[in-house]
Amino acid sequence: MNMAKLSIKGLIESALNLGRTLDSDYAPLQQFFVVMEHCLKHGLKSKKTFLGQNKSFWGPLELVEKLTPEAGEITASVKDLPGLKTPLGRGRAWLRLALMQKKLSDYMKTIINRKDLLSEFYEPNALMMEEEGAVIAGLLVGLNVIDANLCMKGEDLDSQVGVIDFSMYLKDGAHGSKSTEGDGQITAILDQKNYVEELNRHLSASVNNLQAKVDALEKSNTKLTEELAVANNRIITLQEELERVKEEGSYLVESNRKDVEKELEVQIGMKQEMELSMKMLEKDICEKHDALVELRQQLDEMRILNHELSIKSQSSEASGKQKSDIISRLEEKTNQMGHIIKQQCKNCSGVFCENCMANELPLPSSINPEHLCDACYSQLMQQYASSPS
C-alpha cells in the first residue's frame, strides 16, 4: 500500500517537472507498473494447470470488459498483439493501454466495487478485497494528468522480471528532506490544482454522460409516449373491429344454426328412408337367400338324377353293345347257315330251291319231291305244316 502511494506520487511529480509525454523507457513509469503488478498479484488464488500452478491477474482484468463495455476496445487490442503469449504479458499490456487511455482509475474502481466477482480470483485478505484497494483506485485518478505514449510491439512483456527498486524512493525521500518549504508549498498547490482539474474533468464527464442519458431518456420517453398514443389508437380500432366481428359472428351463428337445423331435418328424412330401404333390402336378400337354397337343393337333385342317368346310360350302352355283339354273331351264323344251305342245294335240281328261297309256295306240280335234297325237303315240310291252307 505504501509503495503504491510513493510510486504514484513520485510518477506524478517527476512527470510534471519533466513537462513532456512519457515513453516506455521512463524509469518511474516502469516502477509504477511493477508496483501495480504486485498489488494486483497480492492474495491472488493459484490455478492448477497442466504445467503446474499459475498466478495471473489477467483474469480479474478481463472482468472489466463485462462490467464496462467501453473497455472492450482495450481487451480486443491486447488479444490482437502478436508478441503476447502468456496471461501475465496480456495483463501488463492491459495496464499500459488503460494508462494511455486515462481510464485506469475508472476501470480499477469498477472491478473493486464488484467483490462478489473478485472473490473467484482473490483470497478474502487480498489487497483488492480490502479497503486499501479502493484507496489505490482513488490515488490513480491523479495519473490522468500524465500523457503517456507507450510502444509495446518490440517490448517483451511475457518474460520481464518485475522487481521494485527501493533505492529510487529512498533518494526521493532524502531529496524531499533537503528541499525548501517554499518548493513544498508550490508542489502541494500544483498537486491540488491538478487534482482539482482532474476531478473537475471527471465531474464534467460525469455530467455530460448524465446529460446524454437524460437526453436519451427524454427521447425514449417521447418515443414511448408516441408509441403509447399509437397503441391506444390501435387498441380503440381493435375494440371497434372486435365489436363488429362479434356482431357479424352472432349473425353468422344464427344463420348457421338455421341452416344446420334444415340440414338436420333433411338428414333425418334421408336416414329414415335409408332405414326403410335397408329393411326392404334385407327382406329381398332373405327371399333371394331362400330361393338360392331351393335352387341349390334342386341342383343337387339334378346332379343325383344326372348321375343315375349316366349310370343307366352306361348300363344301356353296355347292354346295347352286348346285343349288337349277339346280333353280329347271329348274322354271322345266319350267313354261315345260308352258305351251307347253298352248298347243300347244289345236290338237287335247283328249281325248287330257288322257289323255296323266294317263298314261292305251293310248289309247282312239275317238281318231284323225290328229286329234292334232304334240307330242301325238310324245309318244304315245315312250310307246309305251318301254312294254314
TrEMBL record:
* Coiled-coil stretches: 200-248
Q: Cross-referenced InterPro entries, in alphabetical order?
A: RUFY1-3 (IPR047335), Run_dom (IPR004012), Run_dom_sf (IPR037213), Znf_FYVE_PHD (IPR011011), Znf_RING/FYVE/PHD (IPR013083)
Where does this one sit in the cell? Answer: Endomembrane system
What is the top-level taxon of the source organism? Answer: Eukaryota
Q: GO terms for CC? A: cytoplasm; endomembrane system
Task: State any GO BP term from the record.
Answer: regulation of axonogenesis
Q: Which residues form the RUN domain?
A: 23-155
What keywords are annotated for this sequence in UniProt?
Answer: Coiled coil, Membrane, Phosphoprotein
Q: Which Pfam families did the record assign?
A: RUN (PF02759)
Q: What is this protein called?
A: RUN and FYVE domain containing 3
The scientific name of the source species is Cyprinus carpio
